[in-house]
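*** Residues and shapes ***
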Amino acid sequence: MALLGFLTIAVLLFLIMTKKLSTILALILVPTVFALLGGAGAKVGTFIVNGIKNISPTGTMFIFAVLFFGILTDAGMFDPVINGILKTVGRDPLKVTIASAVLAMLVHLDGSGVVTFSITVPAMLPLFEELRMDKRVLACVVALAAGTMNIVPWGGPTLRAATSLNLPITTVYNPVLVPQLAGLVCVLAIAYMLGMKERKRLGVTAQGGGVVERSLTESEKKLRRPHLFWFNVIVTVVALVALIKAWQTPTVVFMIAFAITLLVNYPNPKMQAERINAHAQAALLMASVLFAAGAFTGIMKDSKMLEAMTKFAVSAIPKGLGAHLPLIVGIFAMPLSLVFDPDSYYFGVLPVLASTVQGFGVEGVQVARASILGQMTVGFPLSPLTPATLLLIGLCGIDLGDHQRFSFKWAWLTSLVALVVALILGVISV
């Protein structure tokens, strides 16, 4: 079962990243085939249904989130923000790229990838399109910024790490604060470099960039509702606060927010239908990917392939490497995000790894610290196992394989920079 599990992951990533198969088909067919080879039989259907049940709240949330932010864009709520940023950064791709990273860092203070991507991408994407910049750059810098910020103590991975090892959150997080800051500096450096490349590709100079003058088409002008700007802002703020404070589930928040904004901005039923149809394709496509991902995770968990992979990985560690396990985990923490979802890793793999290193005289908390420097932090916005990744690429309008090929090396570099600083400070022993 462990072999089948590793083959499933390897084949899946190969097919997606090389574009041999669409993401939806790969997520459904690959685990199904390997589960059948493992003797699952008719139970595969149950595995798929269980996985879809777990992902269904996220899928419905995504559909209404896309519709909600689509209506806000149509109504022109983001126009003042975009125009303000354009006046500041002008036509300089370098400034636009860095501004995207900084905005994502600030927004991700709440620790939610969904909120971060839902705010940052709609605000910055029109600038990238206006300047004809590579949208992979936007997805990359936003992903790196959100991922590195996800190490915060209220972030999901850090909370899981502390909970699974029954440790105070400060014991796990406080020593990695400086490495996290180093990672954020690395993100800004990467944004600077990518921005410089875009500046060169587009033939724009820092001095001659000028100010971008946005021009709307006649159809876009007819959809704008400038007199409802503050109403839309208030609805958006209330919705985001409700998300952060968990007043209601994200699905309920976006459903209600969408219904209110659509009704107020476009009270005519015919126009309502037109606005829904305008954004339905993007919503349905990415929702399909989400439900396919649910089928994938359901099969991997219920078939016991994931559990077998964990046991095999631990048993395969040579005794001579046991004391160096925190370093090894830190090196591969970010790529592990492509293999293990956060719950499986932090509640399944981490406790076993921690107990293993303790047998070699090393504190188990070091494995936890090494893990959060990449696993489902820097790595979460690239993993097909996290719905937020699919939200990011859906909003940016790019393919998952393109996003992974473009961003993987930069994400791993950011994680390794944080790891090196942690080693220098003695947070993780060699």
